[in-house]
Amino acid sequence: MVYQQINDNSFRKDMFRGENIMLSTSTSNSSFLNQNAAMGEYTDDRLQILDCEATRTYQEPMSQTRRICFIASIVGTILVVVVFLLLPCKSSCVTSAGLLKTRNWMHNYEKMEFKGDINTISQPLESKKHKNIVFMYRSDKIFPDLNKSKKSKQKINGGIVALSGNSGEIVWSREMSNEPRSIDCNLIDCDNNGTKDCLILDEFGQLSCLDSNGHFIYDFSNLKTSKQTRKDLLDFPLILPDLNGDKVNELMMGYSNAKNSTTDLVILSGANGKILLKNTQNCSYIHKLQIDTNFVIKFICMIKEDTEQQILKNLTDLYSLVSKKPLNLKKLQQVSKINQHKFYGKRSSTLEQTTISTVEDKKLEIENKGTWPRESKVSINLTSVDDGAIKIHFEYVASKVYAMVPVPFKLDNSRQGENVHGFIIKYWIWNGTEVKYNLERNRLKRSPESFTPSSSYKTKLLFLRENIMLIVFNSTNMKVENASQSNIVQFCQKQTKDKTGDKKNESICQPDLNYQENSVLIADIDNDGSKELISYCSTFVNENHYGDVIGDRWKLKTFVQLFKLETELPKLYSDVDIY
Question: Can you cite an annotated GO cellular component (predicted)?
Fold first, then answer.
């Protein structure tokens, strides 16, 4: 038998380290075992059981290297926890939203009448995986006592609201004391952060810039301007090249002076809204601003109510008025690469108008005539030219109907394996029903402070229906589908006397027919290559539990719907009429 030779010192050293040692012994080395018996117990199988007390009493000190590694591991763990807790998480950055696909949704929003064009805006912190949908809105004009701001006593006439394209939830909302008139979120990057911002023109021609997170970069809505400005002549600003070298395009617009009846031609800094140039013109109004490829500014100067004159101004001449240095046109961005605001509506008059829209070889012509709603008539004609002959695809003529601005579309329908194109037409139908409404009585019930007995109102309710028609072409035939139908309650109020008792002929309807002209948009919200259809409609909803239409529980609501257009289109090929 081979014996393991362990001297006393090495055994004690290993034992103090807490190591178990198996010993092979015999009678011949019993003296060795007796020598170490005091330091442990032995069983019959000669397994040593170490004395724990002895182990605790004698501990070898940690080496310098191990001590450094141990401290470093603790510090590293603490740093990981601290960094994780300090990572920013802003409310506008929903991490999961950028990874989710857009699904069909529908929501309603209270005390808001959405109006005008629908805009989309990218999220700077989301790697642009999806877009938010931006709307203008008008507050309740029929029951204005409900429009006071929660943050201040200031009356709120409207504002801007952004909805998540994925879910329809409100991302942010900004109230405004002046009602917004028009908005465009595709023209300028005011803060130069790589994401387009929203330019807003209010009802008095004041300009604001709102970033993609809903913060005002600059806001001039509280400045005093002439409130006699004709609202039909308020044009969106003209986008100019960067003139001051701050890498942000400048803005040009007509500015109605509150002190006199003249209008100034002004150039504003796109970055901060400050006036770079003010050139007084002998004009009552300035509108229809344009710029050509030679940097020549054209606009219409209205000298008198019915006298108009076109004026040309060279941008270099205007620049020389504020700078001693000549303007280097070669360094300016080409005009053709600068996006300008497209005026889709509202149309100036609903009495008589014609709208023509085309897609592929199809031509859609919509004609509205007469005063809405009693005398309103619509004519819709869809044609194409085949071998020199006009082919009529679809005709629709009706009374008490008004058609909005049509939306053409063209997309690659992968499920059908072919290109699909067509039109979306929204129109209102009045069923001839109207109810007189005692607005003064119900205002008194809801808010005694807002009741003014010296003023005289004539109020009525109209019951309408809103339809959305889809006209779809593929390579073989045409399909027509009534995509949606909604009931609308409209209040129309005519004020015959003001608070002083003087005669006044002013009328207001809510929801306003003109505000719904461009309430449909087709866009790729989640950047997946497929198109979504977004539509909104506003109405008053009666929350009276007894169903009394003359009750005082009317609440203004706007309903917004989004659905995947390319997913829903294949369903048209089974249950629709073929023309």
Answer: membrane
Query: What's this model's pTM, rounded to 2 decimal places?
Result: 0.76
Q: Does residue 445 belong to any structural domain of this protein?
A: yes
Peptide bond into 346 cis (omega under 30): yes
Question: Are the C-beta atoms of 462 and 437 separated by less than 8 Å?
Answer: no
Q: What is the 3-state secondary structure (H, E, C) of 128-158?
A: CCCEEEEEEEECCCCCHHHCECCCCCCECCE
Q: Which of 71, 86, 101 is the last residue of a domain?
A: 86
User: Looking at residue 451, what is its pLDDT?
Assistant: 39
Q: Tell me the C-alpha distance between 443 and 461, whole Å.
A: 15
Query: Per the structure, how many domains does the chain have?
Result: 2
Predicted pLDDT at 385: 86
- Boundaries of domain holding 579: 403-579
CA dihedral 304, 307, 308, 309 (to 10 degrees): -100
pLDDT of residue 29: 45
Task: Answer for the pair 409, 365: CB distance below 8 angstroms, yes or no.
Answer: no
Q: Report, as ranges of residue numbers, the positions in the chain whose pLDDT lies below 70.
A: 1-60, 88-101, 124-129, 145-153, 221-234, 257-261, 343-350, 413-417, 439-457, 496-505, 545-552, 570-579
Rounded CA-CA distance 132/140 in Å is 24
The token pair at 98 is 């950028």
CA distance 400 to 398: 7
